[in-house]
Write a structure and sequence with these properties.
single chain; alpha+beta; YefM-like fold; 2 domains
Length: 94
């Protein structure tokens, strides 16, 4: 799919908001809105936005984990499971 189709000026957004929302929702497209030739905002459907947020959260967790590992702050899988089970038991009894 040509990317130029997914770049629209802000005047298109102003004049065709309902059409753009319908296209984005139905086709799962992500559209870049420009103002004075510069990229300003992205319009995307909610499902794609949710996936993107989840991916960003996972990337942040992975980055934090990697940083902890570089500092030597690691535990064994067995210890992690023991701690997780203890935390779950504590939540159940509260």
């Amino acid at each position: 799919m040509p990317r130029s189709r997914d770049v629209k000026p802000i005047t298109y957004l102003k004049n065709s908001t309902a059409k753009l929302v319908r296209e984005v929702a139905e086709q799962g497209r992500t559209v870049l809105i420009t103002q004075n030739g510069e990229a300003k905002v992205v319009v995307m459907d909610v499902a794609r936005y949710d996936r993107w947020r989840n991916a960003m959260a996972m990337a942040k967790l992975l980055a934090l984990s990697a940083a902890q590992a570089r500092r030597g702050r690691v535990i064994s899988t067995a210890e992690a499971l023991t701690r997780a089970e203890a935390a779950l038991k504590e939540q159940i009894t509260e």
